[in-house]
Amino acid sequence: MDWLGRVEGIRRWSRGGERAPHKPLLLLLALGRLQHDGDGPLRFTDIEADLGHLLREFGPPRATSPGYPFHHLTNDGLWVVTTENGEGSPGPGLTDLRRSGAAGRLDPEFARSLATDPHLLAQVVRVLLDANFPPSLHAEICAAAGLDLEAAELASTTAPLPARRARSAEFRRDVLLAYEYRCSFCGYDGLLRNTAVGIDAAHVRWWAFDGPDTVANGLALCSLHHKLFDKGVLGLDEQHRVTVSAHFIGRSPSARTIVLDLLGHPMLGPQPGFDPLDPTHVTWHRQQVFQLPARQEAGA
Questions:
Q1: Phi-psi region of 258 (alpha: psi -120 to 50; beta: other; left: phi over 0)
Q2: CA 42/CA 77 separation, integer angstroms
Q3: Of 164, 166, 191, whose CA–CA distance to 180 is shortest?
Q4: pLDDT at residue number 214
Q5: What's the confidence (pLDDT) of residue 297?
Q6: Judging by DSSP bridges, how do beta strands 103-106 and 191-192 pair with one another?
Q7: The pTM is what?
Q8: Domain boundaries, the chain
Q9: Is the CA virtual torsion 282, 285, 287, 291 positive or negative?
Q10: Contacts of 22 (CB under 8 A, 6+ apart)
């Protein structure tokens, strides 16, 4: 069985580029439990809170019930759900899942393959992460799912993945040059022996969701603002002014200086001769990543 192909082929609801990583997040959680506790049934009521946390932290801005992936992942040949009566999944409703004692587990053949192939777990994790999230979030997602990322990466070094869409090696170089090696939000431009340090080339529309490796889809951001941009704490409005999520709370002077004081500031654009940001990518980020509502400027 081509388990990697089956994982890559997970059916996800999509419309107009909307993110729906609900099934991948459940699968990552199940793999984390498998890695540490072995192959056993996962009662819905036992993982409901953890799955809900993953969906809130790494899912799309719209609210999603953990019952949705718990039920619908059964359609992809990777996940099996039974109830206390021995029946299949009662549906995605939370009340039905709780009352029926619904429990899910990895498909037995899939679990056996993971147990006998020491590299398959690492490969599956990499496929799920690369296909659904930017690299800046990978370690945090694995930690939240209970996955040992270091062990997975170590195993994957001897088990190359099948050829898939490749990232452009020139993206970072081109974006940093366009933005003159400084953060588009705060202006940080640190160098170590004439090499930019702490500056990343960020995709506005995530590469995992067909974001192109072009300057028109890139921002130079310091490492902290890159992470906050990918988490939806920071965003951009139609005039390319920095927005800050109202959900972000920072009481210290450093949090105000580094984050809250950016509200309403125009981003630093690329130097002349380079493509400006494509507004369609900015709109995608605002709709699919930024955690609405946005904070209002004082006096607005």
A1: alpha
A2: 17
A3: 191
A4: 97
A5: 85
A6: unpaired
A7: 0.83
A8: 3-156, 171-288
A9: negative
A10: 12, 55, 59, 64, 68, 69, 72
